[in-house]
Design a protein that fits this description.
With about 270 residues, the chain is an all-alpha fold. Helix content is about 60%, strand content about 0%. It has a two-stranded antiparallel ribbon with strand order 1-2. It is globular, with a radius of gyration of 26 Å. The N and C termini lie close together (about 5 Å).
C-alpha cells in the first residue's frame, strides 16, 4: 500500500476563502441594454397595431400561424395548455404570493419589495397599459375565457417576468445560465399555448414575453444596489452560525519522495 503524509489541518473555525465577487446588475451594461431593448419591442409593435388594430402590417403572418394552430384540441396538448392557462390566470397569482411570503418569513424585506414592485409594474402598468392603449381584437372563437384586448399577451408577459424575478432572487449566480435557458423554454411553451387556444395572435405573445422580461431586467438593474446590500447583511448574519461546529478540513498531499519508515508523521492509508 502507498504511504502518504497528511498535512497539518487548518485551524478549527478558520473561514473559508470567499468566492470571487460577481458584478452587480447596476455595474453590468448588458442587463440595462437587454431590458431597454426588450421593452422597445412591444412599444414598436404597439405603434404598428394602433394604426389599424384589425389589420396591422404583420396580420398575414399572424393568420398563417393561427391556421397551423387549428385542428383537434385535446389529448396531452390540451392538458398542457389548460394547466398553463390556469397558471397565467387569476389563480396563478398564488405563485408570486407564495414567493412574497417566503421572502418576508426569511426577513428579506428588500427582496420582497422588489418582487412586489416589479410584478405590479410589469403586469399592471406595462401590460394593462398597452392593452388599453391598443385594444386589438382577439382571434375568433377562443377556446378559453378571455378579457378585452389581445395585445399584448398577459400570460406570456407574466411567465417571462416570473422567470426573471425568480432567477434574480432565488437562483445563485453560478447557476443562472441554466435557469435562463429553462425559463426561456417555459416562456416559449406559454406563448405556444396562448396561440394554440386561439386566445392571442403570435405577435401578441412576442410582445408580451418581451415586455415581461424587459420590465424584470430593468427593475433588477435599478434595484441591484439595495439587493446587494441586503444580500451582504444576510450573509453576515448567517456567517457565525454557519461556521459553528463545522468539521475541519483535512488535506492529503503526496510526498515527492518516500519518507523514512520510522518517521512519526507517516500515516498508512
Amino acid at each position: 500500500m502507498s504511504r502518504n503524509p497528511v498535512a497539518s489541518p487548518p485551524a478549527r473555525g478558520a473561514p473559508a476563502a470567499p468566492p470571487p465577487p460577481q458584478p452587480a446588475a447596476h455595474h453590468r451594461p448588458d442587463v440595462l441594454g437587454a431590458g431597454v431593448l426588450l421593452l422597445v419591442v412591444p412599444a414598436v409593435l404597439a405603434l404598428a397595431v394602433r394604426r389599424d388594430p384589425a389589420r396591422p402590417p404583420f396580420q398575414g403572418a399572424d393568420d398563417r400561424w393561427l391556421t397551423w394552430m387549428d385542428g383537434p384540441h385535446g389529448g396531452p396538448y390540451g392538458m398542457v395548455a389548460a394547466v398553463l392557462n390556469w397558471f397565467g390566470g387569476p389563480l396563478g397569482v398564488v405563485v408570486p404570493l407564495a414567493l412574497l411570503v417566503f421572502l418576508l418569513v426569511r426577513r428579506r424585506r428588500v427582496s420582497a419589495g422588489f418582487l412586489l414592485g416589479a410584478y405590479l409594474v410589469g403586469n399592471v402598468l406595462v401590460v394593462q397599459g398597452l392593452k388599453y392603449a391598443v385594444d386589438r381584437p382577439r382571434p375568433a372563437h377562443p377556446l378559453v375565457r378571455v378579457d378585452h384586448g389581445s395585445f399584448p399577451s398577459g400570460h406570456a408577459a407574466g411567465a417571462a417576468l416570473l422567470v426573471v424575478l425568480v432567477g434574480v432572487l432565488l437562483v445563485p449566480a453560478a447557476r443562472r445560465r441554466a435557469w435562463w435557458a429553462g425559463g426561456t423554454l417555459f416562456t416559449l411553451v406559454m406563448m405556444w399555448s396562448r396561440t394554440w387556444l386561439h386566445a392571442h395572435w403570435l405577435s401578441d405573445t412576442v410582445a408580451g414575453a418581451a415586455a415581461g422580461a424587459g420590465a424584470g431586467l430593468l427593475a433588477w438593474w435599478l434595484c441591484a444596489p439595495a439587493l446587494a446590500r441586503e444580500a451582504a447583511r444576510v450573509s453576515n448574519r448567517r456567517g457565525p452560525a454557519g461556521g459553528t461546529g463545522a468539521a475541519p478540513a483535512v488535506t492529503v498531499t503526496l510526498a515527492a519522495s518516500a519518507p523514512a519508515p520510522d518517521d512519526p508523521s507517516v500515516k498508512f492509508l
